[in-house]
Fold this protein.
Amino acid sequence: MFHGFIPPERFFPYLTWTDIAQMPNRENVIIVQPVGAIEQHGPHLPLAVDAVLGTGVLGMALQQLEPEVPVYVLPPLCYGKSNEHWHFPGTVTLTAATLLAVLKEVATSIYRAGFRKLILFNSHGGQPQVLEIAARDLHQEYADFCVFPFFAWRVPTVARELFSDRELEYGIHAGDIETSAMLSLLPEQVRMAQAVCEWPPSQPPDSWLSMEGKLPFAWTTRDLSASGVLGDATAATREKGDRLLQSAAASWVQVFREVYHFCQPQANPPA
């Protein structure tokens, strides 16, 4: 099935050009561009994790969204900026410049077709900044184009009920969280017998610096992990993945409703 996890009636490539030409209220129709990655995820998970999780949670949300909120999903862009993982065989990466160019050219095509709301739906932690730059540049070029650089895991979820504090802070790649989610969405591609637990080297307790956060330092995965795993994949369960994804999907339903009703702010002229 070409549409994968996305409901077929929400899959943009299944439309005809006449469907689009005749589509009412195109300026409020939401187009979603999923952006994932093909990169190593340890010895137990496939390279496609980020692309799978992004389209998986999107599909779950769209199955719950009321039909009167028009949302159509473009084919996922599975390649992303993954050069932090390129020391591990199998990782496929674009440069930031290439990814930025692709996003802007896709978006321009969507704008030219009459659509005015585009969600760049990212599920890979190595590229949110690229999507944010693309969104700002596109809105600067087309003032009536509403572009939303969203990250799949920045919505409220039940993660704090399911995972340890250590996992939530340091389990940023192929650990308990991603492995549990993959056990929910694509269990036949998870090799739990090969799952490992590996944590990044700790910083001094009084350090203000961190891998991610307000004062980050640059790193590549091989600096932090010999296995490619950051977290405890051995603790993963399908039940945790089910609950995590269900809560994320419910939050994205609310986001789609808000984007549908969103109007670009307009500053009031000074008195």
Notes: The chain has a mean pLDDT of 96. The chain has one domain: 24-261. The radius of gyration is 19 Å. Residues 86 and 241 are 27 Å apart (CA to CA).
